[in-house]
Specification:
Number of domains: 3
Radius of gyration: 23 Å
Oligomer: single chain
Helix content: 55-70%
Order of helices and strands: HHHHEHHEEHEHEHHHH
Shape: elongated
Strand order of the largest sheet: 1-2-3-4-5
Distance between the termini: 26 Å
Amino acid sequence: MEFRNKRSIFAELRQAMAGVVQHCMGINGPKRAKTNPVNKKIWDELHPAALKELRDTAATERWTAQAVLDCALRLFYCTLVVNLESRNRVVAYDYMDFARRIGEVWEDFCKVCWDFPVNTELRRLKPESFQTVRRSLLDQFATMVRASGAQDADALMREYHRVIDLLGNINLTEDEYCAVGDKRIVIDFKSGFGSNEKGNTERLLTVAKIYHLLPGQHECALVVRAAEGEGNNYLRVLKSSGLWNVCCGPEAYTFIQDVTRFDLAAWIRTNVAFREDMEREVYQHLEQQHLTKYLVW
């Protein structure tokens, strides 16, 4: 595969998808029975195989980290375009399915910059489970109580247990947990952040509070593809909390560049062109359904 050439990648992927698309178009059954084979073929078979070829070629020819990331992003983008085309031919996208799908793939697209890092100081970290954090917090408090010589140490520990248990079992696994030098960064990617995000906002605030209790310097960043809309109270709550660095629209790509040392916004301007790259019939359907706003990256 010629990884520097979009046309070449598109041609190979479209040819490889033709059979499964034709087969799925003839299936009578629920939507998932028709669409799952399309998604599995391209993401579980074709993309991993192409990615392996890319890695092997890059290793053999000793590509720079910048060249590998450039080609990995192009491969992902081309795979996505063909995936959207194929899925739409089998079952035409509606608003909910397309919005949800773009939210998933935009995050994965950004994370390619972590999969193939050009910043030598950038490294991924494994997030700790809440149970591990809970034990650590209890141990720290127990040490403080013992050092204080408090007479009612057992009663203090019981109350602290109760307070910690009020948090419930919080999932601390965000979309990216990484470090640049000594600084640890917790990242939550969102394609958009709507006005109905009350539960998610409360969870994010709790997660940030817990990370700020852990040893070392932590920054929590909410990275949103869409520009910040007016009147979004929940997004304002996160921004004013002092716990989350909220980056919307162009600021999202500035943040990504600061962490990864790769100008993803410039790469998008040069390479991403859904209107020109996507089959006309599919793009026209998305236009008619007012869905092309999700393709403004």
